[in-house]
Every structure is written in C-alpha cells, then in structure tokens.
Design a protein that fits this description.
Strand order of the largest sheet: 2-3-1-4-5-6
Distance between the termini: 39 Å
Number of helices: 6
Bound molecules: FE2/S2 (inorganic) cluster
Number of domains: 2
Structural class: alpha/beta
Largest sheet: 6 strands, mixed
Helix content: 25-40%
C-alpha cells in the first residue's frame, strides 16, 4: 500500500495499470494481487483526477451534522457529480466513508489536508479560495477552535455555538 501511494503521487493522483505492474515487480507479487488492493480501497484512484481531490465524508457523525446538504451544495456549486471532475480540471468530487475526524464533523479531505467543522459559508469560501489560488485554513474552520478541542455548548437545545 505505501508503494501504491507513492506511485499515485508520482502519477499526479492516480494509479495506471503500468504502475501497479511495476509495484508487483518490486515486491515480487502477481499483478492481480496489487490490482485487488488498488481496487478495494477508496483512497486509490484508478483514473486521472483534478488538481484538488475532494473526499466528502457522509458517514453517520458527519451526516448528523449536515454532510448530505453540504455535499449537494458542493455538487451544485462546482457543477459536478460524484466521481466526476470539473471542466476546468480543478476539482474531483468523491463520497467516502469515515475519515476519522468525526469530532470535527462535518468534514472533507482535499488532497492531503482535512477541512473540518464545515458549514455552507465556510465550504463555499474554501472552494473559492482553492479555485482562486488563495491561502486556505487547514483543519477546523471555526475561528475559536484549535484542532479537536472541546467546543462550548450553549442553549437548552445544546446547539453548538458557531
Ligand atoms: S463520520 Fe465523518 S469523519 Fe468520521
């Protein structure tokens, strides 16, 4: 798997069959074994992707915090469907299972970075900044939150203060 990851990075984010064959040769296992691993895990892309690879988590904790609505917003804002790349080649969108940052749900992974505690405003701002080549804030998008530290709960409905 580390070799597949390395191959994917060398091939601009995806793994052609020729790279899988080379990985098989290096560790002396049949191509089909490498292919089985590459096709099993969602982290490996089997076709070219855009400059920014958006992995949208929609598993239960993110879903409870509104990931479905954010995903729809993302699709319509970028004018792209799941597993598709925008016409300008900038964004590829994929739905994935839990990425292990549930405490900061909802979240997305874009290339190697996590963007967490998203809402409609912060998601659109993030996409705009990426599209325009501006600096982006990695991690929690809440101003007052560092990493996954506890956040203040207010009100009788225990709504999270944003
Ligand atoms: S459910 Fe989204 S990061 Fe775990």
């Amino acid at each position: 798997m580390p070799l597949l990851d390395l191959a994917m990075r060398q091939c601009k984010g995806w793994i052609p069959e020729s790279a899988m064959k080379e990985v098989g040769k290096i560790i002396d296992i049949p191509f089909i074994k490498v292919y089985e691993v590459a096709t099993f895990y969602s982290m490996f892309n089997l076709k070219p992707i855009g400059k920014y690879f958006i992995q949208f988590c929609t598993t239960t904790p993110c879903w409870l915090k509104g990931s479905d609505d954010l995903l729809e917003l993302c699709k319509s804002y970028l004018n792209v469907g799941l597993n598709e790349t925008t016409e300008d080649g900038n964004f590829t969108l994929k739905e994935v299972e839990c990425l292990g940052a549930c405490v900061n749900a909802p979240m997305v992974q874009i290339n190697d970075d996590y963007f967490e505690d998203l809402d409609e405003e912060s998601l659109i701002k993030l996409l705009d900044n990426l599209r325009n080549g501006n600096k982006v804030k990695i991690g929690s998008q809440l101003k007052e939150r560092k990493c996954s530290e506890p956040i203040k709960i207010v009100g009788k409905n225990k709504n999270v203060k944003r």
